[in-house]
Recover the amino acids of this structure.
DNA sequence: GTCTATAAATAGATAGAC
DNA sequence: GTCTATCTATTTATAGAC
């Protein structure tokens, strides 16, 4: 699926990937508008003109990053949804994969949150399709479980965001919590990936459990 | 608490509030960095120089908006937490108040989400204290319920974000869902305030219910 | 592929008249 | 309080040498 980049024979090693990595850092830390091409170039240790040699514009560089980031996670989730597992097991696996993806990339959530806040104005149909795919996969498993009467008659849209909302907001707000902890003397608390996964799976189990009779565990 | 503005005797009516309203629209729609003082001036139908007469800088205008927005909700939540109610009733009331606040302001969530994503770099101690107050109030009710054994032994930080995360992400993502619905033919679904409140209260009740014996309702 | 130099547009902010 | 005009710095993007 990933089209191999034809690197010119005389290319310096990794220039393009250094640009991508630096841009990811900058966009993740500051957002699209506040990020300057100058800073990306400086961080990547290349001249600014190099960025325009490899990418047609600041926006094209940004969408390239979004496509790579969200393409990976969309694929992983899709793989889970198509496995022959119970709806409960798929939910657990989706949660584990989402937490690992979020905890594996410092920039995944900041970029995601800003696109949500911006109404995805920086994204084209291709990137929007990836986000739609993520949404569709999670939602599909919930609908499947409800149809099979394994889950209670919950609104799929609300159940969907009850799965991802706590993860997204808790992990994304860590820097703000850290500022609050130091300047306001209020420690809200941190948890490791394993604890977070267990909590989200507990919430999902309780939320989705049918009205009568407890969930099977 | 709100210091009354001394309007100069000859002031045109509402200039300052038109600026605040226009700035709220612009910051909410585009974020701090992408918003220009020119656009705010145009929307408020005042000259750009007027903005600098009323506010010392773009940043000061922004923080004034944040203080007003988050000050109001912080007060409302605090009022609930100090009432003589059971922890369960306080949770229900907090949820209802939060949903109504979110649904009552088009710009509340976009601004909040971007500050989360940015690590609150645009906020000073005063604005940070307001956000800390919101966090502290919600968290305090959870800790209270756990201490009274009315809630199960849940991690307060995780329970906290399980309450607000679904609300924030579901409502904030409505514009993106709308784009997905029209361009990707995927309808994830919308709900009214009442349905959203009921769902969040259901999730809270199930999440917090003690291990043995159902919640009292 | 990589660089220097610069174009062209736009940003935040201010001076000063009224 | 409100406006016109402008300053200064910064930004995206490109031309052209090597």
């Amino acid at each position: 699926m990933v089209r191999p980049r034809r690197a010119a024979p005389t290319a310096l090693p990794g220039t393009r990937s250094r640009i991508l990595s630096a841009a990811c850092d900058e966009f993740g830390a500051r957002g699209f508008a506040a990020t300057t091409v100058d800073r990306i170039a400086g961080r990547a240790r290349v001249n600014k003109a190099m960025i325009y040699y490899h990418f047609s514009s600041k926006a094209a560089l940004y969408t390239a990053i979004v496509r790579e980031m969200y393409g990976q996670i969309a694929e992983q989730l899709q793989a889970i949804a198509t496995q022959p597992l119970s709806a409960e097991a798929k939910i657990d696996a989706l949660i584990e994969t989402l937490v690992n993806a979020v905890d594996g990339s410092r920039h995944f959530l900041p970029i995601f949150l800003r696109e949500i806040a911006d109404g995805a104005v920086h994204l084209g149909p291709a990137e929007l399709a990836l986000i739609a795919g993520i949404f569709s996969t999670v939602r599909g498993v919930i609908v499947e479980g409800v149809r099979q009467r394994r889950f209670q008659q919950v609104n799929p849209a609300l159940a969907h965001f009850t799965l991802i909302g706590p993860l997204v907001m808790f992990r994304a707000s860590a820097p703000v919590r850290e500022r609050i902890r130091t300047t306001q003397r209020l420690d809200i608390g941190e948890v490791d990936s394993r604890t977070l996964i267990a909590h989200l799976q507990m919430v999902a189990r309780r939320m989705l459990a049918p009205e009568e009779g407890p969930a099977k565990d």
